[in-house]
Design goal:
alpha/beta; Rossmann fold; five-stranded mixed sheet; 10 helices; globular; disordered C terminus
Length: 327
């Protein structure tokens, strides 16, 4: 008999061939054991037993996380992640069964692309997120900082001078990662230009503090000011367990347990669009305790190699979370 635990042991063994099988099995499991998702599927009139392709799986609108408690099975939440919102239109709530699972999983996502956390110093420039509770990003960065074992890893709220000293003083041979929200990185680039010996990770987010820029404009400004060749970007959100990353450029890559599906903007039931502007649907197999199939409010392009770009937000969607850039 399928169980959340049985899926938990499988997701890190997933490969290109097994992803579809696991996703379809998880869909059937969540269609039975997630009351909100089951009601949504029934409202659509979907025959669960007839679903044979992942593009045919019903993707639950992300707005449901604002209106309902999304749970697969019965369990008590260890904590609740909440989204930020600059519009006052409400926040998403993602109840989390295990903080350890989230933190270990976020580590797996990062290390899949960049190697062991202990290779780096993590300097986090995330002022807006430090000012509120319930941020999955702060939980992740706090874990990275502690797991790095580096006395130079830490959060920087208003102490820019200390940040600049720590950015240029790492004698143990580790690489430095400066991880920041977009408006804070721009402020730093304008006020303290100069070469930085660091990898720079931006996680989006003007949060109403500055004029919106395209990702290309943002990266051009930062690379020019800091004398770095590339900027890395992270794609994550309150409602997801997994994160995708760029390794320079505009295309995000997913870890093996995550996949992006493009949907037609005029017909959300038409899915699988490639190389064209589309709504972004996410399959996150690590969303075992909530729902793994989410229709986001992001616009982007999905490519045949599984990479994707984010171009902005769908009309009338609220500006929220870490991803406020518009291409």
């Amino acid at each position: 008999m399928e169980s959340i635990k049985s899926f938990e042991s499988e997701i890190y063994e997933v490969n290109g061939n097994s992803f579809v099988d696991i996703a379809l099995r998880l869909f059937r499991f969540q269609a039975q054991h997630n009351l909100v998702y089951r009601s949504f599927i029934q409202h659509l009139g979907t025959d669960v037993g007839a679903i044979r392709e992942i593009n045919d799986i019903p993707f639950m609108p992300i707005s449901f996380f604002k209106e309902h408690t999304i749970k697969t099975g019965t369990w008590d939440a260890q904590l609740v992640f909440t989204s930020s919102s600059t519009t006052g239109t409400g926040v998403s709530r993602h109840e989390v069964a295990s903080l350890d699972f989230y933190l270990n999983h976020a580590t797996r996502c990062f290390e899949f692309f960049f190697g062991a956390i202990t290779r780096y110093h993590f300097l986090a420039l995330l002022p807006s997120y430090l000012e509120r509770e319930g941020s999955s990003l702060i939980a992740m960065m706090d874990h990275f900082i502690k797991a790095s074992g580096s006395p130079r890893s830490g959060f920087y709220l208003h102490n820019v001078e200390q940040l600049l000293r720590d950015l240029t003083d790492a004698p143990d041979g580790r690489e430095i990662i400066l991880w920041g929200v977009s408006f804070a990185l721009l402020d730093l680039a304008e006020q303290h230009p100069g070469a930085l010996p660091a990898m720079i990770f931006e996680t989006g987010g003007m949060k109403g503090r500055r004029k919106e820029l395209t990702r290309d404009e943002l990266h051009e400004t930062i690379t020019r000011s800091f004398g770095v060749r590339i900027i890395h970007s992270e794609y994550g959100m309150t409602e997801l367990m997994s994160q995708a990353y760029t390794q320079g450029g505009s295309r995000f890559n997913c870890p093996p347990w995550m996949r992006i599906v493009g949907r037609d903007l005029t017909d959300p039931l038409t899915r699988g669009l490639l190389n064209d502007t589309a709504g972004i649907n996410v399959i996150d197999l690590a969303n075992l305790h909530s729902v793994a199939f989410i229709e986001t409010q992001d616009l982007g392009k999905v490519f045949g190699d599984g990479s994707f770009e984010i171009m902005g937000r769908t009309d009338n969607s609220d500006v929220r979370g870490c991803n406020l850039l518009v291409n």
